[in-house]
Amino acid sequence: MSEKFKRIYDESIKNPEQFWQKAAEDIFWFKKPTKILNKSSPPFYKWFEDGVTNTCYNALDIHIDQGRGQKKALIYDSPIAGNKIQFTYKELKSKVAKFAGALRKQGVNKGDRVIIYMPMIPEAVIAMLACGRIGAIHSVVFGGFASNELASRIDDSKAKVIVTASCGFEPGRTVEYKPLVDAAINMANHKIEKMILFQRAGHEVKLNAPKEISWDESLSNADDVDCVEMNANEFAYILYTSGTTGVPKGIVRDIGGHIVALKWTMKNIYDINEDDVWWSASDIGWIVGHSYIVYAPLFKGCTTVLFEGKPVGTPDAGAFWKIISEYNVKSLFTAPTAFRAIKKEDPDGKFFSKYNLSKFESLFLAGERADPDTIKWAEKLLNVPVIDHWWQTETSWAISSNCTGIEMMKTKYGSACKAVPGYDVQVIKPDQSLAKPNEMGDIVVKLPLPPGTFPTLWNADERYKQNYMTNYDGYYETYDAGHIDEDGYIWIMSRTDDIINVAGHRLSTGAIEEVLSEHQSVAECAVLGIADKLKGQLPIGLIVLKAGVDKDHETISKECVKMVRDTIGPVAAFKIVIVIKRLPKTRSGKILRGTIRKIADKEEYKMPATIDDPEILNEIKQDLIKSNILKN
Ligand code: COA
Ligand code: AMP
């Protein structure tokens, strides 16, 4: 292990309180914390509990106080809308202070929840920061989710206000947000008090006053407001993520730990300084977008790029190179799927050769396993380090990575490098013993987790405890499986629950199954993620029809696809449903999803000892061949 990294890592594990107290000196506090870690009620740990600070102050005001108000904070570039805007820290603060005033005028106060359902436009970032300014808790919902998902988040968060826009743009289609939001509001039991809608030029929609007002109207007569003092353990946001059931989990982030940890990561993991331009090509609806489009770069005081487009098709496979060269981006963070999409379209890098990327220093990948082929292709093309790092919505920052700001380590293709300072990562085998190097098992993190990770679930302490902290006493269960090798490199191989990763988007197969079982012809079903060259995984549905159903199978399959798109959203990328005669199960009735997936992916599998009828696996294989999923 490299010496400098080892020293810092060891320090963080041996003396976490000292380590994070030092990191906490780098942020602005109205009142500095004297109590660094409260361990009195595990698994509920509290970092910096008597500290008083504000998220927005640390993202904006502090930089102006330090004389850097003219520094560029946000660069918005939308090839899809043909729009570019840049904001200095001063300009962004002024917009945020005004919108914070607008929220206040609508009765939003400290602790109130605000749902943000918006495309990738500056107003989305402004709304997030405005919530922080007045101590409201935002919950951003990804635009690719359907009304039903939005409604469940309205109900769970009991939001007072929803901030939205007239539309979003996907290549080839306009996503009209208003009908989706209206449907969600009607579906939800909890009643939203106000809708604030940003009218996109040329796509204005009709609003029903006084409950629905435009963004511009909300600003009229709004006062600029200052940052309120917030206790470090109050919440900055709720981000719902797929859980092991269809009911999403509200991951919460506390204020103090979030600022301290994220600011620390910018230098130590990503080697980003105040004068650098940083770009995270994700969506603000995901954790990567929260942490690395908005918060971490602004806490650091560098420049962040907000890109409303895709790696391909907006307009071509050179879109990423154009942004990097035009704005002198130092490092890019995205999901491997984006690079697979570029590689597919432009394998020889013809578009790449048109741009000058002389300022570009590194590429970070996360969200799904980065396959060695893609990493090697990107390394060869870009001639910079390509770093796979592993993290989760729950943690909000990397659990394992090459910490380039501390010391660059060698790449092992297929591994997400070593545990980052703050995380004591272990592997536990099925017999509950700790795994030796290279032995497979469940990956866990010893408690307490470092600052910035989730202190609980929104209104669900018991679910937090049961779901994450109970199976392995004293550890956080990541639900990822893999091994750690003799050099401490972590290899993430699979999920241990029903989560799949589709184009870097986290989805629950259980949630899709819940939708399919609502179809009147479906007796039972199984959804699994099969390997896909572009998106990493793709969900497929296997359905067994009720006795006596004589509707044709194609119609039923199409109806099922539509139901999932309408209920969960287009982001599920659910397009394949196969009607089968029966599902393979264990004698106790458990569907053998893992075995079916292995058959579909042409992986070796052992005949499960407890299978009720081995012949079913053969039937499934034939069905997969007939549907062209499995090549004979
Ligand atoms: N609003 C509405 N719909 C959305 C959406 C949004 N914000 N984001 C995606 N969708 C839709 C897409 O239009 C697509 O709809 P379609 O079925 O009508 O074509 C569907 O959801 C599936 O989207 P996706 O899986 O992203 O596929 P894609 O073919 O549109 O794009 C990639 C593939 C690889 C280009 C794209 O996934 C991508 O850019 N990924 C980058 C990585 C990333 O952002 N990861 C997030 C976490 S880091
Ligand atoms: P999300 O919460 O959407 O960020 O998804 C988190 C999950 O994505 C993790 O639990 C992993 O299963 C997967 N994941 C994220 N990063 C990586 C990575 N670098 N390698 C392998 N899997 C990853």
Descriptive notes:
The chain has a 7-stranded mixed β-sheet with strand order 5-4-17-16-18-19-20, sandwiched between helices. Strand 19 (about 360-365), helix 13 (about 370-380) and strand 20 form a beta-alpha-beta unit. It folds into 3 domains: about 5-310 and about 390-480, ANL, N-terminal domain (Rossmann fold); about 310-390, Rossmann fold, CATH 3.40.50; about 505-625, GMP Synthetase, Chain A, domain 3 (2-Layer Sandwich). By secondary structure, the chain is of the alpha/beta class. About 30% of the residues lie in helices and about 25% in strands. It binds coenzyme A and adenosine monophosphate (AMP). The site of coenzyme A has 26 residues, from strand 9 and helix 12.
Structure, briefly:
The chain is α/β, with parallel strands linked by helices and 632 residues long.
Salient structural properties:
632 residues, alpha/beta, Rossmann fold, GMP Synthetase, Chain A, domain 3, 3 domains, 5-stranded parallel sheet, 18 helices, binds coenzyme A, binds adenosine monophosphate
Structural class: alpha/beta
End-to-end Cα distance:
46 Å
Average per-residue pLDDT, rounded, comes to: 96
Strand content: 15-25%
Look at the structure and name the CATH superfamily of the largest domain.
Answer: ANL, N-terminal domain
Overall CATH class of the largest domain: Alpha Beta
Overall number of strands: 31
Oligomer: single chain
Please summarize the sheet with the most strands.
Answer: 7 strands, mixed
Helix percentage range: 25-40%
Radius of gyration: 24 Å
Give the low-confidence spans: none
